Amino acid sequence: MSKAIEITDDNFEEINSTGEILVIDFWAEWCGPCRMVGPIVEELAGDYEGKAVIGKVNVDDNPKISAKFGIRSIPTILYFKDGKMVDKQTGAVQKTILSEKLDKQL
Questions:
Q1: How far apart are CA 90 and CA 82, in angstroms?
Q2: pTM of the model
Q3: Under 8 Å CB-to-CB from 34, ≥6 apart: which residues?
């Protein structure tokens, strides 16, 4: 079973340059709603293995990428296609909503 990969200020550009569909969960240890979304993001990593790259960014440890995309509230999930941000979801939501947004990019 695939796991969400850790995305950092240092590896984001490399990961986003592959042309694959990329989904990033911006989160923090202290964020309650993030703890609800975290397991869903891990499930998506397994469900979409081979179709999309699913990753997580700890906003406390990676201020550059968080600032680059104007992350002001977490959890925020960004969707990228061909290296460009194409969709966004802020706040804790059900897995079906995240899956539908991802399916639109496939």
A1: 22
A2: 0.96
A3: 25, 27, 28, 74, 75, 92
> In this structure, which amino acid lies at residue 51?
K
Active site residues: 31, 34
Domains of the chain: 5-101 (3.40.30.10)
Per-residue pLDDT of 48-73, as tens digits, reads 999 999 999 999 999 999 999 999 99
pLDDT digits (tens, 9 = 90+) for 2-18: 799 999 999 999 999 98
CA distance 74 to 71: 7
- Residue 103 CA to residue 53 CA, distance in Å, equals 13
